[in-house]
Amino acid sequence: LGIDPGLRKTGWGVVVWKNNSFIYEDDGFILQNDELELGQKLMRIFDCLCLLIKKSKPDLIGIEQTFVGSGNVSSLKLGMARGICILTAAKLGIRILEIQPKLVKKNITGSGIASKDQVNLMVKKILNIVPKSEDSSDALAVAMSIQTKLFGKLDNGEYSSKLEQAITKAPDKKK
Q1: CA pair distance 21, 48, nearest whole angstrom
Q2: Across 32-41, 109-118, 146-155, least confident range
Q3: Which residue of the set 4, 27, 98, 138 is catalytic?
Q4: Is 64 a catalytic residue?
Q5: CA separation for the pair 93, 1 (Å, rounded)
Q6: In Å, how far are 40, 42, 48, 78, 128 from 37, measured between CA atoms?
Q7: Are the C-beta atoms of residues 16 and 23 closer than 8 Å to each other?
Q8: Confidence class of residue 150 from pLDDT cuts 50, 70 and 90?
Q9: What is the spatial distance between Cα 165 and Cα 59, in angstroms, rounded to a whole number?
C-alpha cells in the first residue's frame, strides 16, 4: 500500500509484486470537507485508512518523506497528516517504509527529477490503468517503489529487500 498524505486529499494505491511484475489492485483518495475542523480531518484520515488497511491487508506500507518547503503552516499540516498515516499503520501492526520523493521518481521514471506528469504517465503505462486522481497516482508510484528490487538504501540505513540486505551483510560474515 502506498500513501500520498495530505490534509485536504490523501491518495492511496495498492499493488502486488508477483512474478517480476506489478499487479494493480486498487487506488483512490480520501477527500476532506473544507468545513471540518483540523481534529475531525485527522480523525477521518485515521478512520478511512483503518478500513482500507483492514480491507487490503498489506504487508508493507510506503509513504514519501516530507519535503519541507517555505510554507511553515502547510508543512506542519502535512506533517500532521503524515503522522496520522504512520500512527494508523503502527496501530494495526503494519510495517511502514518512508521513501525519498526523488527515489520514487527515479524508480518509476528513471530520473530523480521527473515531473509529476512523467510519474503519472509511467504509472499508467506500468499498471495499464488510469489512476483515480493525481494523488492516487503518486501513491501507486510509492507502492511500486517500496517493492522494487532496485530500491536502494533508505536514509535510516535499511534496505528495501531482504535480498539486498543479505548481499550487504555477506562481506561481514567472512570477517
Answers
A1: 28
A2: 146-155
A3: 4
A4: yes
A5: 14
A6: 5, 9, 17, 15, 38
A7: yes
A8: very low
A9: 18
| Catalytic hit among 27, 98, 135, 138 | 135
Residue among 27, 64, 98, 138 flagged as catalytic: 64
Please provide residue 54's backbone torsions phi and psi, each rounded to the nearest 5 degrees.
-65, -35
Q: What pLDDT was estimated at residue 71?
A: 65
Q: Cell numbers of 110, please? A: 528513471
Identity at 131, one-letter amino acid code: P
Which residue from 17, 11, 26, 20 is spatially nearest to 56, judged by alpha carbons? 26
Per the annotation, the verdict on 155 as an active-site residue is no
pLDDT digits (tens, 9 = 90+) for 111-139: 999 999 999 999 999 999 999 999 999 99
**Alpha helix (H) ranges present in the chain?**
38-56, 72-91, 101-109, 116-127, 134-145, 162-174
Look up the pTM and report it: 0.83
Residue 80 has pLDDT above 70, yes or no: yes
Look up residue 171 and give its amino acid.
P
Task: Give catalytic status of residue 135 as yes or no.
Answer: yes
